[in-house]
UniProtKB/TrEMBL annotation, chain A:
This is Sigma-70 family RNA polymerase sigma factor. It comes from the Bacteria. It holds the Pfam family Sigma70_r4_2. The lineage of its organism: Bacteria, Pseudomonadati, Bacteroidota, Flavobacteriia, Flavobacteriales. Residues 27-96 form the RNA polymerase sigma-70 region domain. Residues 131-170 form the RNA polymerase sigma factor 70 region 4 type domain. Keywords: DNA-binding, Sigma factor, Transcription, Transcription regulation.
Length: 195, 47
């Protein structure tokens, strides 16, 4: 198993295209969390997320089997872009606005565990989290997207640039302006973000 | 930013699709055969 984990994506893809079906399973196991997490960050509905995840890999499989894949070494960004397009299609089809967060079903606080904090500190921390999320929501869409992908989804700037279809410098620039704007909003509203 | 307020590692990393979804994808992959005849492409799903 250790050897399989270290096998580069490009080699697994080559194996899969050559007929080794188990290579696909390794690729899915390796990247499922990131891809599914990305979809779930846009659509907080497990059933829809499973459908989009499934449709994403159906497209991946079809493309690979028709030998239409030519981006060796960039498997994850390629799959993420397919997932991103399917998420956009879903919102277009349902005429809903994307980037909805904080529903009864999903809240960032459900996943927070830090038993060492006192109840008071926990409340403060929760409030800080909520404040930050509210502040982020006030940013322009392009800056908000970069902030969320970088800090909430843990994507690299390279991955962000490939998913959003802009250069790395543009993604970096958006992050820079996002941080500047966050500071402006915090100063303007006298928000205290300390615990 | 001096401090990151997000708890991304706790929140996003554990998100995974259902076992049934993965199983479907792998079965689909095994069943799908794509044949090119000239300019035409035929998809066949075998059980």
């Amino acid at each position: 198993m250790a050897n399989k984990v270290q096998t580069p994506d490009a080699i697994l893809l080559h194996d899969y295209i050559s007929g080794n079906e188990s290579a696909l399973q390794i690729l899915i196991e390796r990247h499922q969390s990131k891809i599914y997490g990305f979809i779930y960050s846009k659509i907080q509905d497990r059933t829809v997320c499973d459908d989009i995840f499934q449709d994403t890999f159906i497209k991946v499989i079809k493309t690979l089997k028709t030998k239409g894949y030519s981006e060796e070494g960039k498997f994850l960004p390629w799959v993420m872009r397919i997932a991103s397009n399917l998420v956009i299609d879903y919102f277009r089809h349902n005429k809903k606005m994307p980037f909805q967060r904080e529903t009864d079903e999903y809240s960032i606080f459900n996943f927070m565990t830090d038993s060492s904090l006192s109840i008071e500190n926990q409340l403060i921390e929760n409030q800080v989290e909520l404040d930050v999320r509210k502040i982020v929501e006030q940013l322009p869409d392009d800056q908000k997207e970069v902030i969320k992908m970088r800090f909430y989804e843990d994507l690299s700037f390279k991955e962000i640039s490939e998913i959003t279809g802009v250069s790395i410098n543009t993604a970096l620039g958006r992050m820079r302006y996002a941080v500047i704007n966050l500071r402006k909003i915090i100063e303007k509203n006298n928000i205290i973000l300390t615990n | 930013m001096a401090k990151l307020y997000s708890k991304k590692r706790n929140s996003i990393k554990e998100m995974k699709p259902s076992a049934a979804t993965i199983s479907f994808i792998l079965s689909y992959s095994q069943a799908l055969k794509i044949v090119k005849v000239g300019k035409l492409t035929f998809d066949t799903l075998s059980n």
